[in-house]
Write the structure tokens for this entry.
Amino acid sequence: MIELNVQVFADGADLDTVRKLAEDPLIAGFTTNPTLMRKAGVTDYEAFAREFLDIVGDRPVSFEIFADEPAEMERQARKIATWGDNVFVKIPITTTRSQPCDALVRRLADQGVRQNVTALLTVAQVANVVPSLAGGPRSYVSVFAGRIADAGRDPLPIMRAALALLEPHPGIELIWASPREIYNLVQADEIGCHVITMTHDLLAKIPTLGKDLTAFSLDTVRMFFSDAAASGFGL
């Protein structure tokens, strides 16, 4: 296992897995979103969130609003913020109609709401939202590096530019969101990203970091051989 400075936040909604991860000192915080919650079968948002918070203690946790009209978004954000001093409210960078949420973010920051502005994919989006968070309570900006890569673009220049924009604002931290492979953890650490969110399947691969490649090769050969034998293959 290599030494890392980037904080690792677990991203998920399965409470049984969250219980296991809450015992892992590597996990510095937690995030979730409505899509992950739906996949986990969550139907009562607040009951789920309160159980989640009971499990993870005082580590930072991000819960997302699900409204699309500014007034209702603000109401939900203010309510979610009351669930704990470690709660960060996820606010999307725009509404579903592509309307910027900068003004909402500013109002919430002025009210002392800790936020995690989410679903950013461009440097321009980071530049636009930073002034709205500046001077407010501790906050996060989640740039979806994995989705940038899905679009066939190198996320590293965008993540570095985002870090430069946040440098004058130590209370705002950058999250490398939606990683696609364990190497993204190494990349995030190398550029000085503050946080990376990792789903439970990626977290399971962390023990392979720094593993000897010859030994890894042998493990792979043995896996193929064992699975072929277990399948009873014959020619």
Remarks:
- The mean pLDDT is 97.
- The chain is about 45% helix and 20% strand.
